[in-house]
Amino acid sequence: MKEKKLNPTIAMVLSILLAGLGQIYNKRYIKGISFIVLEIAFIVATFDFLWLGLWGIITLGTIPGVDHSIFLLVYGIVALILLAFAVTFYVFNVLDARKQAIKLNNGWEPPTFSQAVKNGYDKAFPYIMTAPGLILLIFTVVFPLLFAIALAFTNYDLYNSPPRNLVEWVGLSNFLDLGTVDIWKNTFASVFTWTIVWTIVATSFQIVVGLILAVLVNDKRIKFKKTIRTILILPWAVPGFVSILIFAAMFNDEFGAINQDIIIPLIGGEGLPWLTDPFYTKIVLILIQTWLGYPFVFALFSGVLQSISSEWYEAAEVDGATRWQKFRHITLPHVLFATAPLLIIQYTTNFNNFNIIYLFNEGGPAVQGQNAGGTDILISWVYKLTFETNDYSMAAAISLIIGLIVSIFAIFQFRRTSSFKEEGNM
């Protein structure tokens, strides 16, 4: 008697109704029962928490002094993460039931229990080993990111702090305030403009200085190359925060060595307002970052330059190429091709370079009509909004903007970088 064919659609529908029913329909009883037990256990263990989390993330509480909006928001995000795992499992369960029904209809013989366990272990082993890392990643990266994104759409600040007051969803209000409310609009425009200028100028300076020094030291006529390289890399060996604090003392308006020992003896007066005038402070910050950043670029370029074959330069000399032409058509393309991804990282790192901005002058000096200092970049402004004025929702909104800018820039540049293309053409 011909065995009755299985209907993949029925198997799929049964698995949708209850995880494991489709497998039982396919006569994979152990797998089906296991899926049913997993689903029931998940529902029993997490139902109350999921209900509280979903209610909390929708309402953020209803009774001031009793409901803690931030705790409810955290519960809600965790509930969504758990639901994402559950949905992933459910989709796998449905697809597995349909796939196995088709395979059985095509004459596939199910493995024995011992074979199934062995095959399952072999297939699942990579996932078992990476599962702890994945869970850690979710709760140390994904969860904080989702929490920050959620805060950007609330009114969580000093005046709306639980449990005394409830936090409310305000939609795009924070983002609209950045473009419409005068103090936010003026501050954001000023800080954003300076952040872009700071990122481009400071990073470009350190790259140019590192490239020039690497090319000079790599020249055949230079002697004592190892000694020179060691000296040039010394700024990299000193911890950055130590160098920044030393420079902050040197450029102090009242007792700094730059004013007292150099500026005043040369031009007289009281010296230059390095820490009290945003223009001079910005110049100093760019110079300090160039000092701190060029050693890494210098070391990076030095390694690449030594890998370029001397035969290419010899062939160029035979063709009558000048030094500039050899640099432009041989040296520079090779250097940029090999280091482009790391140079892009230099720009994105300086975009969020909090240390130098805050340690040198805490983002100051103050600017009238703004709630950020004259040299604050976006990330240092976010720090002040979070820890000084407790405007958490606005800080989260600006952080979201920072993340989008850095992500878009990095993705766009990496896609255009030759070293990420299979062809490898320069």
UniProtKB/TrEMBL annotation:
Record field: transmembrane: 37-58, 70-95, 133-153, 196-218, 230-251, 279-301, 330-349, 392-412
Transmembrane helix as UniProt keyword: yes
Membrane topology: Multi-pass membrane protein
Function recorded in the entry: Part of the ABC transporter complex MalEFGK involved in maltose/maltodextrin import. Probably responsible for the translocation of the substrate across the membrane.
Compartment(s): Cell membrane
GO molecular function: ABC-type maltose transporter activity
UniProt entry keywords in alphabetical sequence: Cell membrane, Membrane, Sugar transport, Transmembrane, Transmembrane helix, Transport
Gene3D superfamilies: MalF N-terminal region-like, MetI-like
GO biological process, one term: maltodextrin transmembrane transport
Ranges of residues in domain ABC transmembrane type-1: 192-413
Organism phylogeny: Bacteria, Bacillati, Bacillota, Bacilli, Bacillales
Superkingdom per UniProt: Bacteria
The organism of origin for this protein: Gracilibacillus dipsosauri
Any single Gene Ontology cellular-component annotation: maltose transport complex
Name of the molecule in the record: Maltose/maltodextrin transport system permease protein
Protein family per UniProt: Belongs to the binding-protein-dependent transport system permease family. MalFG subfamily.
